[in-house]
Amino acid sequence: MARWDIVDVDADPAEVRRRRRRRFFRLGVPILGVLTMAAALVGTALYSYAMNRRDALLLTQNLIEALDHRLASQVSTYLEVAADAVGILSSVDGGPEAPASETLALAVMRTRPHLTALYVGAEDGRFMMVQRSATGALDTKRITVGPKGRTVAWTRRDADGRVLAVEEDPGDLFDPASRPWFRAALAENRFVWSDIYVFFTRQSPGITVSRSISGGSGVVAAADLDLTDIGGVLSGLKVGASGRAVLVDGSGRLVAVPDVGSMLRPDGETLRPARIEELGDPLIQEAFNRIRIAGETRGVMEIDGDRYVVSARVLRETLGRNWWLLLVAAESDFVGFVAANNRTTLLLSGAVVLLAVLMAGFLAWQAYAADRAAHAMRRRQRELERQGAALAELGRLETIADPGDATALRRATEIAADATVADGVSLWRIDGEKLICADGFDRESGGHVAAAVIPLDRSPLLSKNLLAGEIVTATDAASDPHTSGLVPYLDATGRRSLLAVPVRAGGRTLGCLWIEDGAGDAGAGEGFARILGMLLSPRLVASRDHTLAAAEQPMTLAVEAGGLPFAPSTLRSASIASERNRLQLREIVRRGLQGDQVQAMRFPQVTVLVLRMADDIALATGDAVETVAIGQIVAACQKAAERHGIRYLKILTDQIVAAEGFDGNPSAAAARLATLALETDAECAGLFTRLGRPPGYAMGLDSGPVMGSAIGFGQVAFNLWGEAVRVAGAMAVAAPGGAIQTTEATYALLRDGFAFRARGAFYLERLGEMTTFYLRGRL
């Protein structure tokens, strides 16, 4: 069982609930408060942003509306001045030849600098015009028609109005009655505005307003108005950081733009006003296309994913035609400061929240540290109480120092495992260049192991520290250089951490005490292990002085069978194997059989492997490409048996039986069978994983006497039977799915080269109870 699987059964449920409540109030409440504060600040910032943005947009709408009215008023006034001048001139009687017409025209032109010309014409060709020259002076052109014919004369003046010269131009064929402005004014009794055109003399965009003089005299007064100054008004308008305004007629022809140079486009040898699509501003063009559909508007438009404030107003009342005053500005120009201020507010709020988090975190950390310290103190107190009780119980073991009392040692390791909440506790004695396990207790299975051997040179750093009397603590044994050499042993038992405490006496290290995957306090565990080591040191001293070598030497058994000596040469030296062999020999003698009757078919020390397959449906699984599952398992066993020289391999219904050890080398035979079992286990595990099924197989291993003989007629087959075959089968039946269970006899043969984990007790007829083990891997 891993450390994280251990449940602290000593904890009081009521105390656990109280501790959780304290932790909530110490940690949860400050964190909840900080989160509430952060949520309140964020909510306030979002609400403030929404309200400020709404108010900013409202102010923007009011600003745009004011600018719109102001521009409309300026444009209307600009145009109405020309209409007023025409109205004044049309009130003079006498037509073009009246002296008052020129005098009045000169006076009006001086007060209205954006008028380029003011004139009056008659149907018979008479004409009077006051025109502003390129130098700003006012010149007069007069066409008279009399008995002597038609005369065209120019009066040139300087800027102060003094006459410089009077010139005649006989080549001038101008006829006012043929002009569009003249004909339109005669047709309608109102002010008539021409289309936008380019003045020939000034090469600038302009417009003409005309009106017929009442009385049906066929006389029309008119004025030319330069539109360049309107562009100047638009260029001086500041609508946000990126706003612009244009004046455009209903057909899309530009009337006035801030950049006067972009107003004109060449048209052959002349110039014409540009259209809005020729302006090179897709935003203005898109806004104009939308207002042509929607009509007058003032609001927010989304264009290409961006929001713009748009105002469109038609000047129909002034001109009698659809001239659009269009204002466009990015919404961010007006509400961008709101977002910037909101970001600043959020940053400041975030700083406040961060300070609150740091403060709450500090307080929570202090509370948590205090809670952990109190919990650790209570836990350590419980451990000390538990270890004190364990030491008291150890003190009652009177024979703990007696190397001949295995029961006392087993009880001591069990007490140590409970006291340190460890998965495993074992006592090892140093015998030359190796560690020999005196007893090892597995807390999960409740079983004990002994006699396992680990060479000291497998972990030289661990050996060096232990011989120097130093404790070795490895939280992760695989990555710790002191214990990395023990990984095969620890991995086989599923252990990760190791606490190795030297057992010393007389200034020498006699062995060590291992605590594997201890869940208790490390300091308390070390202290307890040192005390236990001192209690066990007399046992190791006695073991050194009174070695059990005689018990470990090979035994030669001789059983009299009807007076015939019977001494098998390949008997195992382990006591259990020897006893099983002795019992079988006694049974042979009891039945009165002679040696020549049984010698040819009796094998005293054979290791038998039984593979039991329990999932019938899974064994039958397969398709046209793959062999059925049982066929794959059998093929894998056959190949492994060939590799390792296993001579006996048979399939019996849902079991596969393998055996080896017929030549009198039981340890080597057991090792080959164990290797076969591990390889077969890997193959079966992969197969059942691919099938998506739990392991439907188990294996059992036993070493002991068997009987064998050739049976049948024709094609003779060799068959084995006997106690080892039955016990190996019982091990396979009792093992959980995917496990390899071995008897103590097989464990004794394999313990130096393979890793095991004790499972528990198993009753063997005539011998009584013995320990069984799980084979986990090779060392």
TrEMBL record:
Biological-process GO terms, alphabetical: cyclic nucleotide biosynthetic process; intracellular signal transduction
Keyword terms of this UniProt record: Cell membrane, Membrane, Plasmid, Transmembrane, Transmembrane helix
GO molecular-function terms, A-Z: adenylate cyclase activity
GO CC annotations on file: plasma membrane
Keyword field contains Transmembrane helix: yes
InterPro entries: A/G_cyclase, dCache_1, GAF, GAF-like_dom_sf, Nucleotide_cyclase, Sensor-like_sf
Domain of life: Bacteria
PROSITE patterns named in the record: GUANYLATE_CYCLASE_2
TM ranges: 27-50, 346-370
Family matches, as Pfam families: dCache_1, GAF, Guanylate_cyc
Annotated ranges, domain Guanylate cyclase: 600-732
Subcellular location field: Cell membrane
Bilayer topology: Multi-pass membrane protein
Name recorded for this polypeptide: Guanylate cyclase domain-containing protein
Annotated organism of origin: Azospirillum baldaniorum
